[in-house]
Predict the 3D structure of the following.
Amino acid sequence: MRGRMNDVASYIEPFKVNEPLSGGIVGRVVESKSPKFTPGDYVLGNLNWADYSVASDQELRKLDPNSGSISLALGTLGMPGMTAYFGLLEIGKPKAGETVVVSGAAGAVGTLVGQIAKIKGCRVVGIVGSDDKAAYITGELGFDAAINYKQADFREQLKKACPQGVDVYFDNVGGDITDAVLQLINHHARIVLCGQISMYNLDKPDIGPRNWWLLLVKSATLQGFIVSEYAERFPEGIREMAQWIKEGKVKFHETIARGLGSAPKAFIGLFKGENIGKQLVHVADESLSSL
Ligand SMILES: NC(=O)c1ccc[n+]([C@@H]2O[C@H](COP(=O)([O-])OP(=O)(O)OC[C@H]3O[C@@H](n4cnc5c(N)ncnc54)[C@H](OP(=O)(O)O)[C@@H]3O)[C@@H](O)[C@H]2O)c1
């Protein structure tokens, strides 16, 4: 959504001034002219940030409220979950015994990347912006180590946490943090370029040190991706992720803001590190809050 606030050509159209923002929304059908949906159905779609939206049935996917919390369709069993799943497994290709480093490690995508890498038998190091987040990903999620990038000796800590170097780096943030990780990459390392959140709000591009030679000397691969490229395979990813949740191998956390009016603050909070796990905004009235 942040990318769509810049008036530049990208993989998705920029937002238009004076039109509502849109994003991943779970809603309840109140009225339907389509035989596919009846009032009361829960649906997922790319809809407006609004109390009510009108959508065609092509744009909506029906959700089963009995299959667990419907909010998971926006997180672990939705776009962020599939970003972690396909980005790590298809591009990162982690092997048991390898070291996986993930930045933005306490966020919606990062928490899942680390847990999937643990399932695959890797040593997992997360980079986060607070000691509380570090305690959460090691204590609750089973990461092997967590580094707070706001501490002055973060580079030394990172090196210590990766005694065998870094085989897979899942990058959510870019900037200085990525420069530090690249210093530690191993021969044939895979770098998954998922996000660059440290750059999204900069007025001028931050070029930084030119580290490409590190990729050259290590014969490393860096690959960017957009999760929608894997859309056809989402059912497969959702199935496996749901199974891992059932088995207790994947845990999730949601940070929930209440009311449509809280949406801008919640959105801006992403850039200040205010969320743990998936940031959601609960727009509907409280009669739906049990969901
Ligand atoms: N390629 C794709 O298809 C795809 C799909 C979904 C998301 N993404 C990208 O993946 C990344 C993670 O998305 P998400 O939804 O899981 O967000 P998120 O991690 O839940 O939330 C953002 C987190 O980023 C960290 N952050 C904010 N500003 C930072 C900075 N200047 N330097 C370092 N860390 C900073 C904050 O955590 P700290 O407290 O740790 O700083 C914040 O909590 C984003 O870059 C997003 O754009 C890509």
Summary: The longest strand covers residues 185-193. Residues 79-92 form the longest helix (14 residues). The mean pLDDT is 94. The chain is about 25% helix and 20% strand.
